[in-house]
Every structure is written in structure tokens, then in C-alpha cells.
Write a structure and sequence with these properties.
binds iron/sulfur cluster, 332 residues, alpha/beta, two-stranded antiparallel sheet, binds S-adenosylmethionine
Length: 332
């Protein structure tokens, strides 16, 4: 659900047919956005998230396996590396060990981001994460109307005082250990007065508010969007060939990578397991891109997407016509 930053907003090439999918003729040498879960699962049951129904177990990645996954990203550059997809990264007790591996890779990375629910922190290790100066952007997720009651209702079993403690303690650590790291609080919050209430909580504490709207995430306990969901035909944005984005930045190489903590390469950030396209612990990124599992998944979408268990209940359309949930994630 953390899709490409706004700068990468997709545009279909003038000669591209929306929904058209081809396979890479040659290997790609960049990844625009990679999401790697360092913990499978999350302790919260946020009402709009599929975790509310899936109730995943918490399984942290082994450091040696994480090292193999990083080494198997066979590109030269990554724009944004996010250490989460549907898991809660701060539940990992050795997060600093994982973070320390990032600058040692053959590829370079521009932004390293962590998004957390801010409810459980191993503070000693978290200090080491910050002191490493590898993470460039730390995001706290806090939805609702800006009141403690609404926050706790939407993100059970979160507690408001823990959120406030995290905001204040982390701001002090950031100022001391890694002053250039961005502190952002991202709230699914749609009403202007509610957003204003969040600003009043966040700005005096040194956090930058960002807002988005509700997305429909297939399999979630509640559809918070207020819309009925229509599933488009054919392959979605996440399966588009990078040539569909050639008029955009990054040499048009908008390639995307989503990985669970057990190495499973999944198609997207709308659901933790819409399909398994390979395993990054045992195969290279480029081999997955050109592989049979991904080709078969795209073919299934092309022929009868509505029969697919997750994608048949998802409203993400093709590059150029992505639909309301996709764009809700990158609201102003
Ligand atoms: C699934 S969480 C994983 C990372 C981490 N556990 C966290 O809470 O930030 C990623 C983001 O998805 C957001 N999210 C979950 N359900 C959503 C929905 N239906 N619409 C919009 N955003 C949603 C969360 O608020 C969070 O910011
Ligand atoms: S259609 Fe499937 S792969 Fe595409 S965004 Fe939806 S769940 Fe993910």
C-alpha cells in the first residue's frame, strides 16, 4: 500500500496500450521501489488492513537470510528501499544488524524508509538503527480524526500514550543521532478539521504530517472507502512493464519489488500475498521478473482476473488508469 512516491506517478507511454504487458527483453539495472518485510506480520489489527482478518503470526527474518535477499537484488541502483510491506519492522530485535547491511551492497540506494505503528520498540536496538545513519525517512502510521479514541478504535489494540511517547522520544534521539533523518507521521484522515487536529498534535512535537485517503485493500475487515468496489479486467499497475513509465524519471526504469520476510516475492503492496512469484532468498530479482511464475500470474490476470482470489477483489487498474485505491495512498 506504500506505492511509488508521487514523483513516480505513472504515465502510459503515448504508444502503449493501457494494460499491455511485455516481458523484459534484457535485464533491468534499477529498482524504483522495493518493499522488504523484515518481520512477517504485525501485532495490530487495523480495520482497513488485510492483517485484521489474516491475523498473521510474527516471524522476524534471520539476518543471514536477509543478507541473501539483499545480495539477490541484481541491480545497480535502488531509489527507495522500504523495510516493510505488511509487517511491523520495529518488532525485529536485531533491526540494527539488518540496517547495517544496506550500505555494504553492490547496489546504491537513495532513500531508506521504515514505517512503524509506534506501539512496541526495542529502544536499545532502535538507537543503534538511528545511530547508523542509514534510514533517511521514518514514518509513523496514525489514522483517524486526531483524537485518542478514534486512533485506538481504528488501530486496535494501539494505545494513544504509546504513540505520544514514541513521537517525543524518537524526536530527541533523531536530533542527537541522525539530524538529517525525516520524521513523518502519515495519517489516513480525510476531513480537513481532522487533519488540522493531527497537525496540532504533530507539529509542536517536530513531526511532519502527511495525509492520505482510505484505500480498499482486498481481504480487509472493513471497506472504509465508502465506495462499492469494482474490479477492472486485465493486469494491474503492479504488473506493468517498465516501458509503460518511460516518460517518467529514473530512466523510465520503474521496476517494483515486494518481498515477505520468508523471501516470497509477492506482486504488490495491496495485499501481503496476492501470489508468490519466486523467492528472493534463492533467486535473483531479474530472474523473477523474467520467470514463469510471474508470466503465469499475468496470464491469469489477462484471461480471467475476476476469478482470482485476491486480485479478483481488488480495484487497482492498469498503468495510466490505476483507480481510486491506488491514488488514495499518495494523497497530498
Ligand atoms: C500495513 S502497514 C505496514 C507498516 C507498519 N506496520 C505501519 O503500521 O506503518 C503500512 C501502511 O498501510 C496503511 N494502511 C492500512 N490499511 C489501509 C487502508 N485501508 N487505507 C489506507 N492505508 C492503509 C497503514 O496505516 C500503514 O501506514
Ligand atoms: S490486482 Fe492483485 S497484484 Fe494487482 S494490486 Fe490488486 S491484489 Fe495486487
Amino acid at each position: 500500500m506504500e506505492t511509488a512516491p508521487t514523483a513516480a506517478a505513472p504515465e502510459v507511454m503515448p504508444d502503449a496500450t493501457p494494460g499491455a504487458v511485455t516481458f523484459p527483453a534484457t535485464r533491468v539495472d534499477t529498482v524504483f521501489v522495493a518493499h522488504i518485510d523484515v518481520v512477517h506480520g504485525c501485532q495490530l489489527r487495523c480495520v482497513g488492513c488485510p492483517n485484521s482478518i489474516l491475523q498473521p503470526k510474527i516471524v522476524p527474518v534471520e539476518p543471514a537470510f536477509f543478507a541473501r535477499m539483499l545480495a539477490n537484488i541484481d541491480v545497480e541502483r535502488i531509489h527507495t528501499l522500504r523495510l516493510f510491506n505488511f509487517g511491523e519492522p520495529l518488532l525485529h530485535r536485531q533491526l540494527s544488524t539488518l540496517v547495517a547491511m544496506i550500505p555494504k551492497q553492490a547496489w546504491t540506494v537513495q532513500e531508506v524508509e521504515i514505517s512503524t505503528n509506534a506501539q512496541k520498540v526495542h529502544w536499545d536496538d532502535f538507537e543503534r538503527v538511528l545511530a547508523a545513519n542509514v534510514v533517511t525517512r521514518l514514518v509513523v502510521s496514525a489514522d483517524g480524526d486526531g483524537t485518542p479514541e478514534n486512533y485506538e478504535r481504528l488501530r486496535p489494540p494501539s494505545k494513544w500514550p504509546k504513540l505520544i511517547e514514541f513521537l517525543e522520544r524518537t524526536k530527541a534521539l533523531r536530533d542527537r543521532l541522525c539530524p538529517s533523518m525525516q520524521l513523518v507521521c502519515k495519517s489516513v484522515s480525510e476531513v480537513p478539521e481532522h487533519r488540522e487536529r493531527w497537525r496540532e498534535v504533530l507539529l509542536p512535537r517536530g513531526w511532519t504530517p502527511e495525509f492520505r485517503r482510505w484505500m480498499w485493500l482486498p481481504g480487509a475487515e472493513r471497506n472504509m472507502t465508502g465506495r462499492s468496489i469494482t474490479t477492472p479486467e486485465g493486469p494491474c499497475f503492479f504488473m506493468a512493464h517498465w516501458s509503460a513509465f518511460q516518460s517518467r524519471d529514473w530512466d523510465g526504469q520503474v521496476t517494483l519489488l515486494y518481498v515477505d520476510a520468508d523471501g516470497s516475492i509477492v506482486p504488490c503492496c495491496m495485499h501481503p500475498g496476492a501470489a508468490v512469484l519466486g523467492n528472493l532468498g534463492t533467486m535473483r530479482f531479474n530472474d523473477m521478473l523474467a520467470g514463469k511464475a510471474r508470466a503465469a500470474f499475468i496470464e491469469a490476470m489477462r484471461t480471467n482476473r475476476r476469478a482470482m482470489p485476491v486480485c479478483g477483489d481488488c480495484d487497482v487498474g492498469p498503468a495510466g488508469d490505476e483507480g481510486p485505491s491506488f491514488w488514495a495512498s499518495i494523497d497530498a
